[in-house]
Specification:
The complex is a heterodimer of chains A (150) and B (107). In chain A, 21% of the residues lie in helices and 39% in strands. Chain A is α+β, with helices and mostly antiparallel strands and 150 residues long. In chain A, the strands form two sheets. A five-stranded mixed β-sheet of chain A has the order 2-8-7-4-5, with helices on one face. The longest helix of chain A has 20 residues, at 5-24. Chain B has 107 residues and is mostly beta strands. The relative contact order of chain B is 0.32. Classes of the chains: A alpha+beta (150), B mainly beta (107). Chains A and B meet through strand 5 and strand 6 of A and strand 5 and strand 6 of B.
C-alpha cells in the first residue's frame, strides 16, 4: 500500500500523542503488595531529599531485559553511607525487583543490572542511608513487549 | 545452569581507588510464572543472591527477585586500600552456591 505524505504525518502525530498519554497516565497506582514492600523497606518513614539518578530506557522494546543503572549521591564514609537500595516495579506480577546492599568498601553507591518489566510503568527506587535517611526516585518506562513469561 | 561466571575488573589499582566490577553468570532465572507446552507451571529457579567480599569483608551484595533478566548481570564498585582477593558468590534457589575468586594488586 502506498501511503501519502499526509497519512504518514498524521500517523506520526498520532503515535506522539499516544506516547504523551502513556507518560501522563497514573502509573503509580500503588498495588497493596508494592505498598507493603515499600513500608517494610522504609519502616514507614517518609522519603526526604536526596540525589538518586536512575538510568532506564524511555522505551523498552523487549521487557525481558531492560538495562537499569542507579547512582545515589553519597560520601560513602563509615559514618554516612548508603546501606540499601530497593527497586520496585509495581506493574509486574511480583513487584520486588532487587535489593542492593552497600558498605563503605563499595566506594560508591551505584549498581547496574538488567531487569524484566511486564508492562509500561513507573519503576520506583528507594535508598536508605546509615544515618537513617530515606530517599526516593522513579522513572517511567514504556514497554512494547512485556517480559514476564506471560 | 550455573556455568563458570564471567568477571571483568582491573588486575591492578592505586590505593584509595574505586574500581568497577562487572559480573555475569549463565542462568535461566525461571520465574515460576511461566507455563510449559502442557500448561503446567514451570517451577521457580533463580539466583536469589549475589555477594562480593574482599579479604573476607563484605563489599557489596544484592538480593535478586524474579524480575531480574536471565543470565543475571551485576555491575558495582569497590574501594581498594590494599592488595587482596575478591570472593564472588551466586546463590541458587536449589541451594547450589557458585563461587569465584579474583586477585588484585594495589599500589
Amino acid at each position: 500500500m502506498q501511503r501519502s505524505r499526509r497519512d504518514v504525518l498524521a500517523l506520526g502525530a498520532g503515535s506522539a500523542a499516544l506516547a504523551i498519554v502513556a507518560r501522563a497516565s497514573p502509573a503509580r497506582a500503588t498495588t497493596q503488595e508494592a505498598a507493603d514492600l515499600i513500608a517494610k523497606f522504609t519502616g514507614g518513614k517518609a522519603a526526604g531529599p536526596g540525589k538518586i539518578a536512575i538510568d532506564l530506557p524511555e522505551i523498552a522494546e523487549n521487557g525481558n531485559t531492560v538495562p537499569l543503572s542507579i547512582v545515589v549521591d553519597s560520601p560513602m564514609t563509615a559514618d554516612d553511607h548508603v546501606t540499601d537500595i530497593f527497586v520496585i516495579a509495581e506493574a509486574n506480577p511480583r513487584p520486588a525487583v532487587a535489593t542492593f546492599h552497600f558498605t563503605p568498601l563499595s566506594g560508591r553507591a551505584e549498581a547496574a543490572t538488567r531487569i524484566r518489566l511486564a508492562a509500561t510503568q513507573d519503576v520506583v527506587v528507594l535508598a536508605k542511608t546509615s544515618t537513617g535517611r530515606i530517599m526516593s526516585q522513579h522513572a517511567t518506562v514504556k514497554v512494547t513487549v512485556g517480559g514476564c513469561g506471560g | 545452569m550455573a556455568n563458570a561466571p564471567r568477571i571483568k575488573m582491573p588486575a591492578e589499582a592505586k590505593k584509595g581507588e574505586v574500581i568497577e566490577i562487572r559480573t555475569l553468570i549463565s542462568h535461566v532465572m525461571e520465574t515460576g510464572l511461566r507455563r510449559d507446552e502442557g500448561g503446567k507451571l514451570v517451577p521457580r529457579k533463580i539466583i536469589n543472591r549475589f555477594t562480593c567480599e574482599f579479604n573476607g569483608k563484605p563489599v557489596f551484595a544484592v538480593d535478586l527477585e524474579t524480575a531480574i533478566a536471565a543470565n543475571p548481570y551485576v555491575k558495582f564498585t569497590a574501594r581498594l586500600e590494599q592488595s587482596g582477593t575478591f570472593r564472588f558468590a551466586w546463590f541458587d534457589d536449589d541451594g547450589t552456591v557458585t563461587t569465584a575468586d579474583e586477585k588484585i594488586t594495589v599500589t
